[in-house]
Design brief:
This protein folds into two domains: 67 residues, Winged helix-like DNA-binding domain superfamily/Winged helix DNA-binding domain (Arc Repressor Mutant, subunit A), CATH 1.10.10.10; 154 residues, GntR ligand-binding domain-like (Four Helix Bundle (Hemerythrin (Met), subunit A), Up-down Bundle), CATH 1.20.120. The protein contains eleven helices and two strands. It is 73% helix and 3% strand. The chain starts with 14 loop residues before the first helix and ends with a helix. Helix 5 crosses helix 9, helix 7 runs antiparallel to helix 8 and helix 10 packs antiparallel against helix 11. The chain is mainly α and 240 residues long. It has a two-stranded antiparallel ribbon. It is elongated, with a radius of gyration of 22 Å.
Length: 240
């Protein structure tokens, strides 16, 4: 482990929040890295100038976030910091915060539309075949919301990979789990499932023609429709 400079904390926040912020800041600065072992609890509490119960509270929170791993009898380690693990718990936050979900739609319309246009230029015959199989699965799953949602996610993943841009693929992976929260709500509406199948057909057809403009437009139309259904769903819940 490299030399890590922990500092005494300023206590404007709650103590546990300040501890968590300090550790996250050290991760951002690369002073802590995946696999690093934190100092023993007593030593770390003394360095930070906090009580051990406050430190334990912060470490529990970071453990839930999958930033650290507490190994009984061994100590606390920085986790592997896999993107899919780090964002997993945020799905619940998105289910509670509709404004954040709408921000996600905004981001998807910008990034995923461009990604789809790239895919139209670069998609392989094998990827097109996988898309057709996925589309068939979607069509067969219209009466099964959970199976339909999985087919929907898979189709978008194939298109993401078909752009053959690792940076875009990593970015889309970072928000994929977050998108499950909105999908859980909209995919249980039959009219949404039926319309999405139609949109998927249009997207796949444009990809097959290798038409970037038509593919981007079809993807944007699809995302705007799902966003509108989500907005109507939220408005209906608020009126109750």
């Amino acid at each position: 482990m490299t030399e890590t400079t922990f500092s005494p904390l300023q206590k404007q926040q709650t103590v546990a929040e300040a501890i968590s912020a300090e550790i996250l800041d050290l991760l951002r600065q690369k002073q802590l890295k995946p696999g690093d072992k934190l100092p023993p609890e007593r030593e770390l509490a003394e360095i930070l100038g906090v009580s051990r119960p406050s430190l334990r509270e912060a470490l529990r929170a970071l453990s839930i976030m999958k930033v650290v791993e507490v190994r009984q009898g061994d100590g606390t380690y920085v986790s592997a910091l896999k993107t899919e693990d780090l964002v997993e718990h945020l799905e619940f936050v998105f289910m509670l915060d509709d404004s954040t979900t709408l921000q996600l739609f905004e981001a998807r319309k910008i990034v995923e539309t461009g990604n789809a246009s790239l895919a139209a230029e670069r998609i392989s015959d094998e990827e097109l075949a996988a898309l057709h199989a996925c589309l068939e699965h979607s069509e067969q799953s219209v009466d099964d919301p959970e199976a339909f949602m999985q087919a929907d996610i898979e189709l978008h993943e194939i298109i993401t990979r078909a752009a053959h841009n690792p940076m875009l693929e990593r970015f889309m992976a970072s928000i994929r789990t977050l998108g499950r929260a909105s999908r859980h709500r909209t995919s249980h509406m039959r009219k949404v499932r039926e319309k999405v199948v139609d949109h998927h057909r249009q997207i796949v057809a444009a990809l097959e023609r290798h038409d970037p403009q038509a593919t981007g437009a079809a993807m944007l139309q699809h995302l705007e429709f799902v966003e509108q259904m989500y907005r109507e769903l939220v408005a209906g819940e608020q009126d109750k």
